[in-house]
Amino acid sequence: GKITFTMIKPGERNQENIGPILTKITENGFRIEAMKLVKLRTKQAEVFYSHLSDKPFYNDLVKYMTSGPVLAMILEKENAVSDFRVLIGDTDPTKAKEGTIRNLYAESLQKNAIHGSDSDENAALEAGFFFSTSERY
Ligand code: ATP
Ligand code: MG
């Protein structure tokens, strides 16, 4: 697949690191196809993470993701989904390899800096959830 969907997650630290995170992304060969700063509503965050609704951390996650702006993007590259998950590193920042975005910028397992789609199918769904065709280049 050629696209993935990402969000830089909320939080003061993440806001400060937007520049360096974007630099990492573009330096690694991803082209920005769409980008906007979004205020997620509770309902949207619940739907976005509905596959995790039975997890004990779900309510906290929804609260966190609606606590401030998220920078949503569609990124284009060959093997976008898997290459991007390599670039961001493990969900748990203590396990994320050195030099990955989560290794460098995550604050905790919950505040792990950034989201990346986990399949081509979800990338297409998530991209469509956030962006209309006229917002994509
Ligand atoms: P993402 O979907 O954000 O790219 P992921 O696919 O690596 O991350 P998921 O299992 O989809 O991980 O979890 C979604 C998000 O939920 C994580 O990025 C993290 O913010 C939060 N999360 C996951 N596991 C935990 C946990 N055990 N405790 C607290 N928060 C968690
Ligand atoms: Mg996920």
UniProtKB/TrEMBL annotation:
- Outline the extent of the Nucleoside diphosphate kinase-like domain: 3-137
Q: Which GO terms describe its molecular function?
A: ATP binding; nucleoside diphosphate kinase activity
- GO biological process terms, semicolon-separated: CTP biosynthetic process; GTP biosynthetic process; UTP biosynthetic process
Residues annotated as binding ATP: 9, 57, 85, 91, 102, 112
Q: Where is the active site?
A: 115
Q: Which UniProt keywords apply?
A: ATP-binding, Kinase, Nucleotide-binding, Phosphoprotein, Transferase
Q: Which Pfam families match?
A: NDK (PF00334)
- NCBIfam families attached to this UniProt entry: PRK00668.1
Listed name of the protein: Nucleoside diphosphate kinase
